[in-house]
Write a structure and sequence with these properties.
The complex is a heterodimer of chains A (about 110) and B (about 120). Chain A has about 110 residues and is mostly beta strands. Chain A is about 0% helix and about 60% strand. Chain A contains no helices and eleven strands. In chain B, strands 2, 4, 5, 6, 9, 10 and 11 form a seven-stranded mixed β-sheet that branches. Chain B is globular and about 40 Å long. The model of chain B has no long low-confidence stretch (mean pLDDT about 95). The chains are: A mainly beta (about 110), B mainly beta (about 120). Chains A and B meet through strand 4, strand 5, strand 9 and strand 10 of A and strand 4, strand 5 and strand 10 of B.
Chain lengths: ~110, ~120
């Protein structure tokens, strides 16, 4: 599999439920960033977690990083219809100045 | 909140023509990037730029591509002779930091949709 794989590819839940998305990567990283993209729009930066951090919170978002498993997860609590979007993880490769993106998870929140 | 701005939002060009995509990064950022996203595919890195030179480029970024920071505010991507497969959404990004590497968030513009006919 390639650097930056996410699962599930698509997730549909009811408003108010929690949504969890997972991401895996292959090589050593400096940080891992999560982005949201509404259909046909730009990438909105959500949260960054550094390689020496294990968990980070921002509002309704919680990100974890397990460097031993080369994986990260994004949890959105108390989901809202406005959270409907595609979510991407992007890893900043160690020793390089580039982000490697995953395929993304398409999240649908049903009212 | 400061943001990255890109122009135009949509560019339609005949194959073989030159195209220049423009970006205004966030004003105090020193690291600049271009990425592209072909419809339905993942976002791909093209090039990073720091201290007036390319830091890194992907295999996509061949000699048909070039970047320039012509003044203190703009950052441009030029494609010299466009091909059909260059059709994609092109994103500019910038990040803060000091030194050769930035470990800060990369902030993206809304993109330029490039359509090659």
């Amino acid at each position: 599999s390639q650097q930056g794989e996410e699962d599930p590819q698509a997730l549909s839940i009811q408003e108010g439920e929690n949504a969890t998305m997972n991401c895996s990567y292959k090589t050593s990283i400096n940080n891992l960033q999560w982005y949201r993209q509404n259909s046909g729009r730009g990438l909105v930066h959500l949260i960054l977690i550094r390689s020496n951090e294990r968990e980070k919170h921002s509002g309704r978002l919680r990100v974890t990083l397990d460097t031993s498993k080369k994986s990260s997860s994004l949890l959105i609590t108390a989901s809202r219809a406005a959270d409907t979007a595609s979510y991407f993880c992007a890893s900043l490769i160690q020793g390089a100045q580039k982000l490697v993106f995953g395929q993304g998870t398409r999240l649908t929140i049903n009212p | 909140e400061p943001e990255v701005t890109q122009t135009p939002s949509h560019q339609v060009t005949q194959m073989g023509q030159e195209v220049i995509l423009r970006c205004v990064p966030i004003s105090n950022h020193l690291y600049f990037y271009w990425y592209r996203q072909i419809l339905g595919q993942k976002v791909e890195f093209l090039v990073s730029f720091y201290n007036n030179e390319i830091s890194e480029k992907s295999e996509i970024f061949d000699d048909q591509f070039s970047v320039e920071r012509p003044d203190g505010s703009n950052f441009t991507l030029k494609i010299r002779s466009t091909k059909l497969e260059d059709s994609a959404m092109y994103f500019c990004a910038s990040s803060a930091g000091t030194g050769k590497w930035s470990n800060q968030p990369q902030h993206f513009g809304d993109g330029t949709r490039l359509s090659i006919l």
